[in-house]
């Protein structure tokens, strides 16, 4: 019988395609394509956006590679999706052409996907065993970006911007059918967000990210702007603020309705009612798609508990700002804002925190040997 635990056998059971988006990567492709050929993958797709550096000369030099040249379109992730649309393999690997991603671990990533029955395996710099060897400025951008995404979306995946991934057939077919995925770098987050929301199984595999070998990164300021816009519009922060504002109305409304009866009790009722309405709105709307770590009663209890803390934070900030020279109303307003930020952090990481990704370092090790 074939021992499926042996990497070479697992891998042989499935067909694998590889998709490489390229823009001006002639020199890198010259080195990469022969290396990929040695891996004996089923098919290699290069989706090139009409590069100006002579990439098209490679079409004749590598007849076994499927080149697609897009004339009127640009975008890293839209190029990846174009490749997925052509692919007919059990798994598709997506990677950069610039040697930031080590082709020699592709087999292990595929095996990991098979063994864990994952729909996407994200090559991760930010889990145990992973490493980001990029230059400092890019490391900072990447860390900030990943932290922001984790607050606004899914804390369960650590490296949400990574471009080195394995997709199962059902996952990449699903993605191919989606028409509104962001075309540029932001699309990496968009894709993961959609897969997680639709219950596709995601896992991470440690990678050692290297600075690119030749040429320059295509990441532009515009991509960073797109990214922030995506987080702001699709993330949960905006919803969280709206829920907070609705809570003010609940609290003031009840106080208004009940104050003639007893102004103290009316205020307490108003506050607790707004804490509770905030909870349910956040639970059913803001954090609807979260795979919650805690049960509903525990979330409700935690939410109540963390609703006390902002009062203290608000007061402490007020005192500090006021003593620091701020006008008293301004000091209080800033105090409210700071307290709200704290509250958001507790909510997004704790109360509505997600189940941790099951990561299997032993399995990774066994695949490496
Ligand atoms: N077809 C096409 N069209 N390919 C593109 C485009 C485009 O508009 N822009 C970039 N590429 C290709 C590059 O030629 C390269 O093969 C790959 O996409 C990655 O581009 P880089 O310019 O090297 O990106 P990076 O190193 O800044 O970003 C990488 O790391 C990020 C994580 O920090 C990518 O893997 C990103 O996806 C990832 O988010
Ligand atoms: Mn790169």
Explain this structure to me?
This protein has 369 residues and is of the alpha/beta class. It has 2 domains: 7-234, Alpha-Beta Complex (Spore Coat Polysaccharide Biosynthesis Protein SpsA, Chain A), CATH 3.90.550.10; 236-351, no CATH class. Helices cover 55% and strands 11% of the residues. The protein contains 14 helices and 9 strands. It has helices at residues 7-13, 26-38, 58-61, 76-86, 106-116, 136-152, 169-177, 187-197, 221-234, 237-258, 263-286, 296-323, 328-351, 361-368, and strands at 16-22, 43-48, 66-69, 91-94, 120-124, 131-132, 165-168, 202-206, 208-209. The strands form 2 sheets. A 7-stranded mixed β-sheet has the order 3-2-1-4-7-5-8, with helices on both faces. A two-stranded parallel sheet has the order 6-9. It is elongated, with a radius of gyration of 25 Å. 37% of the residues are buried. The mean pLDDT is 93. The structure holds guanosine-5'-diphosphate-alpha-D-mannose (GDD) and manganese (II) ion. Guanosine-5'-diphosphate-alpha-D-mannose binds next to strand 1, strand 2 and helix 4.
């Amino acid at each position: 019988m074939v021992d499926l635990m042996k990497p070479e056998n697992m891998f042989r059971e499935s067909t694998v395609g590889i998709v490489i988006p390229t823009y001006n990567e002639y020199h890198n492709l010259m080195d990469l394509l022969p290396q990929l050929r040695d891996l004996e993958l089923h098919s290699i797709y290069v989706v090139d956006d009409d590069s100006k550096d002579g990439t098209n000369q490679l079409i004749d030099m590598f007849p076994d590679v499927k080149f697609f040249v897009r004339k009127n379109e640009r975008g890293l992730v839209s190029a990846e999706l174009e490749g997925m649309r052509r692919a007919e393999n059990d798994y598709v690997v997506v990677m950069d052409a610039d040697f930031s991603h080590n082709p020699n671990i592709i087999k292990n990533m595929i095996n990991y996907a098979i063994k864990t029955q994952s729909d996407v395996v994200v090559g991760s710099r930010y889990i145990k065993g992973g490493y980001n060897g990029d230059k400092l400025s890019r490391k900072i951008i990447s860390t900030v970006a990943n932290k922001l995404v984790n607050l606004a979306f899914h804390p369960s995946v650590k490296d949400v911007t990574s471009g080195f991934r394995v997709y199962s057939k059902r996952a990449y077919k699903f993605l191919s059918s989606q028409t509104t995925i962001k075309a540029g770098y932001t699309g990496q987050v968009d894709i993961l967000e959609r897969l997680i929301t639709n219950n596709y199984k995601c896992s991470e595999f440690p990678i050692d990210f290297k600075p690119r070998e030749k040429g320059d990164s295509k990441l532009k300021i515009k991509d960073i702007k797109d990214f922030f816009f995506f987080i702001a519009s699709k993330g949960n922060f905006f919803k969280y603020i709206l829920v907070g504002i609705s809570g003010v109305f609940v609290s003031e409304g009840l106080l208004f309705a009940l104050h003639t009866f007893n102004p103290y009790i009316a205020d307490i009722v108003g506050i607790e009612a707004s804490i509770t309405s905030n909870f349910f709105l956040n639970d059913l709307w803001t954090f609807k798609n979260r795979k919650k770590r805690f049960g509903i009663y525990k979330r409700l209890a935690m939410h109540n508990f963390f609703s006390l803390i902002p009062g203290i934070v608000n007061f402490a900030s007020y005192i500090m700002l006021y003593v620091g020279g701020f006008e008293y109303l301004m000091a209080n307003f800033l105090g409210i804002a700071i307290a709200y930020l704290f509250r958001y952090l507790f909510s997004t990481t704790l109360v509505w925190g997600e189940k941790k990704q099951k990561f299997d370092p032993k399995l990774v090790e066994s695949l490496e040997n």
